Each structure stands twice: as C-alpha cells, then as structure tokens.
Amino acid sequence: MHIPEGHYTLKEFCRVIFDSPESVLEGYHGQRIKSFLYLSDDGWSDYLDEHYETKELGGITKFVGEYRNRKGAEQPAKFYVGQYKDDLQMVLTAETEEAIRQALRPVSEHSDCLSPMPIMTGDFQTMNEIVLSTYDDMRISEFKSKRVPSLADARTRPDVDREIEYKGADGRDRLDEFRDEYGVVPTRIQYEHENVSIRIDTSGKFTLETVNKESFNILFDLLSEVVVNVLELLDVANQIKFEKREVVPGNLKVQVPEVSSGEINFDQEVSLMQAENFIKGTKNSDDLNFSFTDVTKQAGSLDFSAQVTDENRGSLFNVSATEDSMRIVPKHDCSFPSLVEFYLAVIQLLDGGAEMRLYESQSAA
Description:
The protein is an alpha+beta fold.
C-alpha cells in the first residue's frame, strides 16, 4: 500500500485507505484490503523489529518482509499493524495471498508473543446475524458450513459429521436451508451488496473487496462483538503453564513444580476415529505444525492420550481425552500461541463448538 508519511491512530490509518483507495492501492492486483487480527503479549513489537524492516507511523508500525513471486524474483511485501485493543493487534495489507503466505505468516509461526486470533463458532454466527439484520438485501454468494450440534439441530441424519461448501446467487437462502436440514452453521461467508463485498472466516481473516467507509464500518462493528470472548480465551491460555515456585521449609530452599492445566470441553461426543482423523488433519495442514508422540488409544469409549509438540516454537504439553473433553497439561515452554493455535485446530478439525477453560492448578507435594 502507498501510505503518506505521518502519525496515525488505527482509525485514522483506515480513513486514509478508504478516503483514497485508488492512490493507496495503485499497482496492487485485486485492489482489496486484507485484515488479520493477532493476540499479543509483551515483546511483540521487539519481535517485529528483529525480523522485519520496520518504521513507526505514530500508532501504526509499517513492517516489510520479502517473498518470491511466481517468476522467482524477490519482492518486498508491506504490512501495517496497529493496536485494536490491549493485547490485540490488527494487521492490514493489500499484498497477494502468496506474499502473505511467505512474508506474513512467519510473523507468528515462531513467536511466543503473537498468535492469529480465532473466532469461536458461536461468535461467528452472531457476526453473521449482525450483517444480515443490518442489510435486509445483503446477498451471500459463497459460504462454508460445518456440523455443530449445540448451534443447530438436523432433520436429516443428525449423527453424521458434515462440512458443506456452496457457491450461488441464492446463498443466503441455502445457508438457512442447510442449517435446518443438516444442522450445519457457517465458518466462512462471502457477502455481496450494492456498496459492500466482504469475506469473513473463523480464522480471523477479513477480506474487504470493496474498499470504502462502509466496509471498514462493518469490520469494526463485527470485531466489537467478538473481542471480549477472544481476550477471555487469551487469559485462559496465559494461565495454562508449568513453572517452578521457590518455597522455604525451615532452612531449606526448594523448587516446587506448579502446574496449571487446561481443558477443552467438547460440544458433542468424540469417537476414537474422530481423534485419529484430528491427528492426521494436523499433520496434513499447511497452517499447523503439531506432532503427536507416545500416543495411546483404546477402542470403545474414547480413551486417548499423547504428547504434543509445537514444532515451530518447541512448546510441549500432554493431552488426554475422553468422549466429552480433552485435558491439556503443560510440560515445557508452553507459550500462549501454542495453546491458542492448538485450540484453533480443535475447532477447525475436531469439534467446532468446543470451548477451552482453565482446569486446575496443582503443586507437587
């Protein structure tokens, strides 16, 4: 993006974009803005400085990475980040998907202080209701939906796990019909209106295909609906940790391990086959890098346990699952991004209605 030198707040920066989209987006393919939200912790700004060429523009930081285009030539990729809320950063860019894959995704893959913001499936339904109630004639041209029993009943074979993708001018009607018939709810939606074209999905990515004030207003209105739950998730992830506390019994100083574990509560009963498919799904995903070792499993009622490693960050934690829940016990360098991204994997690949909470804290005797 071509942004004039200056000092901006996040809202002022967005205003520059939608006031002059032609000059800001000149030369960019597609002429669209992509917004990504990142949960953050202390040190995220220093992390950017260490890995990118950065420049301060008041409350906005420009950071530039490099990627190889289709012809193999290296090119710069420009991104801009500003604080949306405490511990929540918004990244804006007009770069291609390939530039984003090569130059932006690494911003969090190895960081202990940045993680992509997930949107819980229930919150996503609220966002959709807001858009459709604001625009009676809003069209849905494309959507992806999945089975979430706590959010929708199914008339046809309710015990079948489903995922449906649909494209068509009648998407708004089809979304409701599929929900009623098959119990599926949207996880990605493309909206179309006279002055608005915007795509949202549960990974926290927003694509503004019409760059105007109305599109940015929708973006900020939708974020205001989910930010509380997202920051509560961050708080839970930060409390799941392994640390050593010093105690002094008598004249001795003793390091006592203290573990605060977490739990993911499933929305529906999970089978052994689903757990095995979850492991396969994380291995085959381009966006996840978790490995599972010391896996034990038992047929019949789900009895599953494993050691999980975040191969990018080195975080290590144990999981043990029943049909109803999965317990997470941190072991080594278990940073909040690893836990948030593992939870994101669960809601994307295993159970879209699952919720994560703090389980308990224990000290060794």
